[in-house]
Amino acid sequence: MASRVSTFLMFEGKAEEAMTFYVSLFKDASVTSIKRYGPGEPGTEGSVMMASFSLNGQRFMCIDSSVKHAFTFTPATSIFVDCESEAEIDTVAAKLSEGGQVLMPLGEYPFARKFIWLADRYGVSWQLSLTNA
């Protein structure tokens, strides 16, 4: 079996909420597994020990860290989505930007007919693009 590469997202108590939100944004998306902390385990009981989900065939993993860290997500790493229609980019951009921060506003750019770069309400950075092709 070949090695698997996945994007891994660490949250502090919002992993399941974020994962459920992300899965709701795309047609081909699902939660593929979830394991929660139980009584007496090192994380908050019921929070996500390890979960995986799929967005349009791309596998992601996420956890709720019980340890407070001095770091969080950064826009230097983002999830890039090639949208298939103007309706998709408009809808996904509107939902992801709610409670988040727009880094580059939705509009036309030399490299894309329509593009937006944002950090969502959880701090995860996204680039959505509708290319010229």
Average pLDDT metric: 95
- Taking all Cα atoms into account, the compactness measure Rg is 16 Å
User: What portion of residues is helical?
Assistant: 10-25%
Order of helices and strands: EHEEEEHEEE
Q: Domains counted in the coordinates: how many?
A: 2
Whole-Å distance between the termini? 36 Å
| Major beta sheet, strand line-up | 1-4-3-2
CATH class of the largest domain: Alpha Beta
**Tally of helical segments:** 2
**Shape, please?**
globular
Low-confidence stretches: none
Biggest beta sheet summary? 4 strands, mixed
Strand coverage percent:
35-45%
The tally of strands reads 8
Question: Can you name the CATH architecture of the largest domain?
Answer: 2-Layer Sandwich
Which oligomeric state applies?
single chain
Which structural class is indicated by helix and strand composition?
Answer: alpha/beta
CATH names the topology of the largest domain as Signal recognition particle alu RNA binding heterodimer, srp9/1
Comma- or semicolon-separated keywords:
Glyas_Bleomycin-R_OHBP_Dase, PhnB-like, alpha/beta, VOC family protein, Signal recognition particle alu RNA binding heterodimer, srp9/1, four-stranded mixed beta sheet, 3_dmu_93_MTrfase, 2 domains
